[in-house]
Amino acid sequence: MEPVKLGLLGLGTVGSGTVNMFHRAGVEIERRAGRQIVVTRAAAQDLSKPRDCETRDIELTDDPMSIINDPDIQVIVELIGGYEDARDLVLAAIRQGKHVITANKAMIAKYGNEIFAEAEKHGVTVAFEAAVAGGIPIVKAIRESLVGNHIQWLAGIVNGTTNYILTQMRDEGWDFQTALDEAQRLGYAEADPTFDVEGIDAAHKLTILASIAFGVPLQFDKVYTEGIAGIGREDIQYAEELGYSIKHLAIAQKTEEGIELRVHPTLVPHRRLMANVGGVMNAVMVYGDAVGRTMYYGAGAGSEPTASAVMGDILDVVRSLSAGPDNRVPYLGFQLGSLSSVPVLPMEAIETAYYLRMEVLDSPGVMAAVTQILAELNISIEALLQKVPEPGQDTVPIIMLTHRIRERQMNEALYRIGQLEAVQGKIVRIRLEYFDE
Amino acid sequence: MEPVKLGLLGLGTVGSGTVNMFHRAGVEIERRAGRQIVVTRAAAQDLSKPRDCETRDIELTDDPMSIINDPDIQVIVELIGGYEDARDLVLAAIRQGKHVITANKAMIAKYGNEIFAEAEKHGVTVAFEAAVAGGIPIVKAIRESLVGNHIQWLAGIVNGTTNYILTQMRDEGWDFQTALDEAQRLGYAEADPTFDVEGIDAAHKLTILASIAFGVPLQFDKVYTEGIAGIGREDIQYAEELGYSIKHLAIAQKTEEGIELRVHPTLVPHRRLMANVGGVMNAVMVYGDAVGRTMYYGAGAGSEPTASAVMGDILDVVRSLSAGPDNRVPYLGFQLGSLSSVPVLPMEAIETAYYLRMEVLDSPGVMAAVTQILAELNISIEALLQKVPEPGQDTVPIIMLTHRIRERQMNEALYRIGQLEAVQGKIVRIRLEYFDE
User: Fold this and answer.
1) Is residue A195 part of a domain?
2) Nearest-CA distance A331 → chain B (Å)
3) DSSP string, A293-316
4) Are B176 and B203 contained in the same domain?
5) Residue A103: count of CB within 10 angstroms of its CB
6) Which of residues 57-116 of B touch A (CB under 8 A)?
7) For A155-177, b where at least 16 C-beta lie within 10 A, e where not — what string?
8) Nearest chain A residue to B336, by CA
């Protein structure tokens, strides 16, 4: 059989990793695929830049369209990143009848519906395992392995940068800024860390995961997104004291009323697996009605882990080359025509437990006033810590955990408590999930 | 397109779960497959027995061969279990040109080489995701997602019964027998628990995992297998005190000299994910040179979780019906002709760390004699606990952790220490793994 020829768009971190993997494991890849696969061409923005991979056998260009238009190339691997430019190239490749493999979560989350419709029209496939949680085969697990299940919820640590920062804040007692500085020094965070720290990157991934889990269209703009910059080191310490770790989770849940899509810091009990996913590692837990809880753990980013996922997609696409388009795994797990239109719930409608921390004046009656408000709103308290005042301080911190209630009630409670004169400054509110079902 | 017709052999726990899943999720399964799939016939040993599923639309028989010989049936789902009978039926089905899906780990571990060769000859596929770790999609992850990696090792909790027993011994302070009795009462352990408790079931699964990870033939008879009946509740307590949990692990590792295949109780540090896999749950950690550590967690047995894996295989097989045999995923991840023949190492050649517990006479010079033997064999001690004697006792327990050494050296050390007059009874030796790379 003829070798399959690939064209790479982008020779940065993941592109180099992919080329290196072909050099190192090419023989095994052929043994697995039963067919030779070669990268014949690659596009990079600056051809004079030194590369982290051997490019002797690859024809380089700074014009990606010349690869897309090359009739010898059957498969395009898009590793450029970003929104619009990547989309334009991918759509052009699809219109040329090329199969596409991408690691670009931002593009899929934002433009995936359009891209998949175009691919459907042209009878080609678009594979995106590397777009979610790097080397963890979570897309395949949900789309191909858990097919007999109604997925009820999933929750993941899908951003290594924020998980590294929270882990260091806990293990080293650092504040947020110190941990972020260290993450940048080690190359775990970008010079502009906004996408990671504010949860936008996690929201991209959650958008994709929710679609393949529930069979709904991609709807990035409906994800509630809260970052980790507001987490104090004292919150992490109090949470530890109460038996919890704080993790930055992306959560999708199907309820009778609709779908929850939310990214926010979350307390998780110590003994849960999710609480023990440390450093830059990622993990996704998926709850299916038949299988129960399953979890998938691994490196969520980096050159080689992401290339590992790209390579899985390459073999799938190569195998599918001789299968008909109707026999491929559907992009979002279900045939495009039969995606369902369950509504995404507003954040006020979701239900969760809460951690609250507030500074109150050390005077009689304050605790009674706070708990009175909670009682009136039917919010029951699961645990309560009141610390003695530091010498010279006239306020004390109150920390409490609540049972599960609607976010709407909690918003009302926080508003009313905030009106109390004895309560100083902003109340810290962090959501808490048990994952015990 | 014509519906695909399945025949089920076996309507017990997993068979009923599979039928129920078709009733519950049939619409979604069709949305995913783009094609209708129906169970038209099923075989059961005793037709008068009440079933845990609705069989109105299924033609029942007590003669499995009549299903295998039915020209309308394209796919046989073997859910009988056991060694020889299942093998005979599966081989007959293959010779009839049927695709086969099986949950039978014992049969695949023992007769898989023969079965795959026969399937290759007849151009049909044999799928066995449900044979390893129930609902966890570990076969697919290794065979299809981690294809760009050289897998270096894997380690798993692949038997829910032993994990339940060890978890209860830790959490409730029970001894082995009490925990086993409770497991039997809850239906987690069979009336004859030998296969689970002695590690044979885990060895079956390890055999399969090692083959797909390393591209070597199935070689069940070369697995070193040690059960959990020798673990005392005091060992679990001492291990906890030292910062470890005891887990019954199945470990496969590729070294320069060959392959290690071993099932035995193992100490694992508390903060490791593996240490937090409790109750009847399963987990497999896989280390690939590109992706690093990935882990897969979920229910390893039970009606619905196993049916979940069977259903994943059903969709894969149905999709492959229109693809050529050369384009299917190879049974063991690599094309059968190119499996490699790396030797399986004898247990004496493997390297690990150790936990030792011995009862010694409470007299001067004993500790010196023991440590002298270890020093002579270049075994260094990582931690040491010596307890004060219980009132009225003239012996004390010594517990120690060693650094990593060859099993051969440890055997020699245990022999020599056992010869010391001050050492009473049998020395308990449990292996210790860190999973820190």
Assistant:
1) yes
2) 10
3) EEEEEEE-SSHHHHHHHHHHHHHH
4) yes
5) 29
6) none
7) bbbbbbbbbbbbbbbbeeebebe
8) A31
Shared domain for A289 and A144, answered yes or no, is yes
Q: Which residues of B272-309 are buried (b: 16+ CB within 10 A; e: fewer)?
A: bbbbbbbebbbbbbbbbbbbbbbbbbbbbbbbbbbbbb
Q: What is the pLDDT of residues A293-309, one digit of tens each?
A: 999 999 999 999 999 99
Residue A286 shares a structural domain with residue A312: no
Is there a contact between B290 and A17 (Cβ–Cβ < 8 Å)?
A: yes
CA-CA distance, B420 to B389, in Å (whole number)? Answer: 19
**B-interface mutation test, from A147, A157, A214, A277, most B Cβ less than 10 A away:** A147
Inspect the interface and report whether the beta carbons of A31 and B334 lie closer than 8 Å: yes
CA–CA dist B14, B37 (Å, integer): 18
Q: Residues A224, A238: one domain?
A: yes
Provide the whole-model pTM. 0.92
Are A218 and A211 in contact by the 8 Å Cβ rule? The answer is: yes
- According to DSSP, residue B125 is labeled -
Q: Is residue A188 one of the residues assigned to a domain?
A: yes
For B206-329, where are the E strands, in sequence order? 224-225, 244-254, 259-269, 281-288, 292-299
| CB within 8 Å of chain B, chain A residues 294-353 | 294-299, 304-305, 307-312, 315-316, 319-324, 326-330, 333-335, 338
Q: Does a structural domain hold residue A341?
A: no
Q: What is the ipTM of this complex?
A: 0.91
Domain that residue A65 falls in = 4-135+303-335
Chain-chain contact of A293 with B277 (C-beta, under 8 angstroms): no
Using a CB-CB cut-off of 8 Å, the residues of chain B touching A147 are 28-29, 32, 311-312, 315
| Domain count of the fold of chain B | 3
How far apart CA B90 and CA B9 sit, in angstroms, is: 10
Those residues whose C-beta lies under 8 Å from the C-beta of residue B367, and which sit 6 or more positions away, are B360, B386, B398
Residues B233 and B362 in one domain: no
Q: Report residue A406 as tokens.
A: 């609607």
CA distance B278 to chain A (A): 9
Q: State pLDDT tens for residues B288-328.
A: 999 999 999 999 999 999 999 999 999 999 888 866 565 56
